[in-house]
Design goal:
A alpha/beta (about 260), B mainly alpha (about 300), C mainly alpha (about 350), A: about 260 residues, alpha/beta, Rossmann fold, 6-stranded mixed sheet, about 25% strand, B: mainly alpha, two-stranded antiparallel ribbon, 4 strands
Chain lengths: ~260, ~300, ~350
Amino acid sequence: MRILEVKNLSIQFGGLRAVDDFNLSLGKDELVAIIGPNGAGKTTIFNMLTGIYRPTSGSIELEGESLVGLKPYQFAQRGISRTFQNIRLFSNASVIDNVKMAATMHSKDNLVSSLLRTRTMVKHERELDEKVMSLLEPLNLADKADLLAKNLPYGDQRRLELARALMTDPKILLLDEPVAGMITTEIEEMAELVVRIRKDFELSIILIEHHMNFVMPIADRVKVIDFGKTISEGTPDVVQKDPKVIEAYLGGGYQNANA
Amino acid sequence: MATILQYLVYGLQLGSVYALLALGYTMVYGIVGMINTAHGDFLMIGALGTYFIAKLFDSMSIDGTYPMLAVGCIILIATVMTGGIAVGVEAIAYRPLRNKPRMIALITAVGVSMFLTNFPRALPFIGPNPRPFPTLFTPKTFNVLGASITSTQIIMIVLAAVTMLALDRLVAKTKIGAQMRAVSMDKDAASLMGINIDKVISITFFIGGALAAVSGICYASVYPQVEVYMGSWLGNMSFVSAVLGGIGDIRGAMLGGFILGIAQIFATAINSTFGYAVGFIILIVILLVKPAGIMGKVTIEKV
Amino acid sequence: MKTTNAKTMHPLLRKFGPLLGCIVFYVVIMLLRKADIINGYYMQVMLFAGVNVLMTASLNLVNGFTGQFCIGHAGFMSLGAYGAAVITTMVFKSNSIPEAAQIPVFLLGLLCGGIVAAIVGALIGIPSLKLKGDYLAIVTLAFGEIVRALLRLIQPIGGARGMIGIPNYANFFWIMLFVVLTLWLLRNLIYSSYGRAFIAIRDNEIAADAMGINTTKYKIMSFCIAAFIAGVAGGLYAHVLSFIQPDSFGFVKSADYLVYLYAGGSGSLTGSVVGAVLLTILPEVLRFLATWRLVLYAIILIAVMLYRSEGLIGGKEVPFLRIKRSSLYEQPLFGRKKNGLSEE
């Protein structure tokens, strides 16, 4: 059973076809990477997969249920969660609250019990606190739980976005350039982290990234996008050797990155 | 028919006051990004200033009318003075808050408005009492299809239209206009490109203040009474006009001003309270249909 | 571990301390009133300060915590004032009902006022909360003015002249009760999943949406709760002053509440209390300046915004108005010591 089936996904802005005929069949626990030059339409694909943009045509099916036309929060409630390329934290809230905010949809408390702060509500809050702390612990954020998100260093902010996305209890996690602007050691740490959460949470992951040495070791499959079109697809080894990819995107860049 | 035409004349007359004021409102919003609730008070300062400057020119008046040259001087001094006050207000109260949340600037503007109204009110030689506005223009009345229209009304309507066109050209074609557009899009980038943001914003406020003064003089010429509270109500209405047309859009401001003026006159003919509310009703309807106003463009936030 | 013991030693005192403080405050004020140290005029200023706290705190929920821009809050207040006044003055003729029934009628009036305001809040909020930022502000401004115009048109409730002869049921006891109750409820709400959803929307609406928060629902909810409180506050106002007219609830009044909110510090209930109380009292203190009073008030306001633009309180909360995560930490740490699950 494939968990996510995306067929013929296209979107048009004015006359521009930003994404043209994108197809993706994601298996359970699979990690697919989408690569391609800047402006190729990768983030636009994510925006369609999370309901921020409505595709002009095509279908998105999560475990057989069509999602096209739903609002972003409904995508999230059905199990697709994401991080953002340009970090979007709740910057004036503390780290722990940032993660708790992502649990809003799982909250068992109604308006009355929240207003009165009943015993059950307090109990739920404590359980939530503990759950969040157990999530922050492996991400090395536990000791920063009470800092404001905006005061965190960059790498911590990226990991906090990850923690927040995990808190929604997703089936599929979309990571939009998770190592953008990071240095080599941080990139390696993030790669380990992604592998670990994939295993621990039994997640299917779609990943957008530029750093080949981040993507290639961890991805099961790679899709290469250029000008909105899929130009190559396959295991990392196959894609790396595809002349079309080398021409369109990798060029000398990949060799340099490896050097 | 003649009655309808007459109302239309009144509507255009009121609309031209709104339009002139709304032009300044919309420029400040478009370029600085703040709702300057004190903008209506610039109108009051312009009108009240004209009253006192005309007093100084009293010796030149004959039977309460002034020679053309004196009228020109009075208007020029009043507009430049109001423009200068607008620049001063921006420099003292708004400039330090430029990078703060918008609501902070709005609250400061409320404070500024309060100050601009209450300071002259507290001054012993001004005070809260309404004063008769001097006759700067002696109106000639024309008869068109049974409706009467005065030369003052024609001047006002033409003035509003000409000012709008001039501003539109200024922003679209001149160097300072290009700088204004740059500042409105991205202040930081504009400043990196060597644009003196403070200067551009000062010029914007000067134009806004001067236009408010002109619109105050127009208003007082047809409703010849000036007092310190006259600005708040007109300011609110011109703000509604600017939003109606699409705030930030110069042509929209004029369109909104005329629509509002005409609608208000016709609605007031039915019921005075309805005349008051009609502007807001039109506003809500238009915003719900076209959230950025008639001429405005909806911007999409990039994710 | 020591700090933990010290903090948990008097759980009863910690829990009921604020309540005790309120009772002491009430008794002291009533004694001062008896001794006529607080005269009737001061008392009325205090009652208005209480009403203003309710208005500012409810506005804070929308503007400060949910990050929306409502600038027509006095419109909801007027709906509540008229709603409550109609119940106590016209439906149940105040002087013809037995004394025992007065309080229930008063409370019923407040409830109705609040409900009317909340329903109208929903009607306004549902279509307009999809508008962003400034445009929402403009719609709420227009809404306030339309309500004012409509109230002027309805002759049975006095039209532009307003309503007179409203019984002055709202004494210090009721005002204080409603202020304390509202602040307590609002605090609870803010430190719950609802409050977190509001703050998430304020801080980053797109991310909130992507994290499964139904932003429209929570925005409308925040708007309606605020409208309800404003309606109750309006009802109290009517029963303090005994007289209401549509023009008392114009943009000037809405602007007052915005000023209280942002001068006190938005996003902080403490800020709302401080802003509303200080700025209600300030013009009274400045009364000796006669016509220069509002000039000085304006200068103070501008100075506060220029030199303390986060507001006087600036996002902080007094202990009673915040909830610490006592389950895991006894103190907010801010890098003081490593505090994790393992410590427990």
